Amino acid sequence: MSVPTASSSSAAPPGQPKKAALAAWIGSALEYYDFFIYGSAAALIFPEVFFDESDPATATLLSLATFGVAYAARPVGALFLGHFGDRVGRKKIMVFTLMLMGVSTFLIGCLPTRDQVGTLAPVLLVLCRVLQGISAAGEQASANSMTLEHAPPRRRGFFTSFTLSGTQGGQLLATLVFIPVAALPEEHLMSWGWRVPFWLSVAVAVVGYVIRRTLEETPAFEQQASTEGVAKLPLAVLAREHWADVLRVVAAALIASVSTIFTVWALAYATSDSVGMSRTSMLWVGALANVVALAAIPLWASLSDRIGRRPVFLVGAVGSAVAMFGYLWAISTGSYPLVLVLGIVAFGVVYSAANGVWPAFYGEMFSTRVRLSGMAIGTQIGFAVAGFAVTFAAQIAGPDGADWFAVALFTAALCVPPVIAALTARETHKVPTEHLGERAAATTAHRETVSV
């Protein structure tokens, strides 16, 4: 039976798609400001503040490992937040995750240092980082579900891309805040300067709460709740009807390794003794790349509304594998113009193809009943690997941390599973919202009928 192409009966009222996209953009920007300032601090500040400064290489490795801890916590958070998001709605989860991120980030700015309390300092740091990871586990999945279910059927790629534009905006804001902080005299930077960006999360939490509490629940979720009802156990439905797509999203989500290697490991490598580039100059590379990404992401997403999710995602995945070699090579030369140009191309343009389209690409694999659970669990397992990719890269780079080619090869290898996932996925950009995920459910039901 052919899939109808009429507009959804649960279409959003006029103006709601734009409001949902704007709220998702602002909320994601504010939340990921918190998340990304940790990455900058883990590369530049925390090795000296929280770990043994007598062994810089080990201190850097341990600091980068704490960056990955949040990614390890994400799958656990995804199980709980995905479950409740599919049972009580997208809006409540969006508000909760924002508040949790704001509180945990503010607490990081208040932590005592290793010199003050010894090994308790890194333990407290890890606990706060775990809370950040739990928050991030539900943030993007709930925001993506909200925008996708509010969006016009033929423009879901464009509207859902605002969530990822928001994360890039948050990363840009975090970088811009760290530029003057990193320029402080060493004594002030290591004593109080690094804490200021974390303290600003109080404002983040307040503003984000005001914005997100005014959102309306999505028409798709309300219709699901009023007709068939919400799933009592979304995870059971997910395992029964969408297990293949969950695995596909896990593999595709490994593309996030490109982002973590670019924003964290490459920053640490460029400012290390083997290269010797300044903190401020490298932070500007990230800032300008994110400015370009803010424009590129919605353009790539709009293209996916015309030609499909798969080809655009594949351009980003394959292109990122190649571009990383050029970017890390540029850093190894110490040539700032090369680093700036290739950094913008690699992260601002090429990676944005995959980054801008995945919110729609992944979300369209699932039905309304399990969309938040499916996206949260699938992405967060993949993101967990991406988070620790930074730690693995630090080990692969060798004792002096200078083997950039090995790190580029490692990053390219992590781009292979996303390519395979995209090649085996269904193309869904023309499927009406209310019919998304039906093929997977119908296939499962058919198999169960045959087995009886």
Strand content: under 5%
Number of helices: 21
Structural class, from secondary structure content? mainly alpha
Principal-axes shape call: globular
Question: How many strands, what sense, and barrel or not for the largest sheet?
Answer: none
Mean pLDDT: 85
Please render the helix and strand layout as text.
Blueprint: H1 16-44, H2 46-49, H3 56-88, H4 90-110, H5 114-117, H6 120-150, H7 156-182, H8 186-191, H9 196-199, H10 201-212, H11 219-226, H12 234-241, H13 243-252, H14 257-270, H15 279-307, H16 309-333, H17 336-363, H18 371-396, H19 404-414, H20 416-424, H21 438-451
Structural descriptors:
452 residues, mainly alpha, 0% strand, globular, disordered N terminus, MFS_dom, membrane, transport, MFS transporter, MFS_sugar_transport-like
Question: What does this protein structure show overall?
Answer:
With about 450 residues, the chain is mostly helical. It contains 21 helices and no strands. It has helices spanning about 15-45, 45-50, 55-90, 90-110, 115, 120-150, 155-180, 185-190, 195-200, 200-210, 220-225, 235-240, 245-250, 255-270, 280-305, 310-335, 335-365, 370-395, 405-415, 415-425, 440-450. The model is unreliable at about 1-10 and about 445-450 (pLDDT under 50). It is found in: Cell membrane. It is a multi-pass membrane protein.
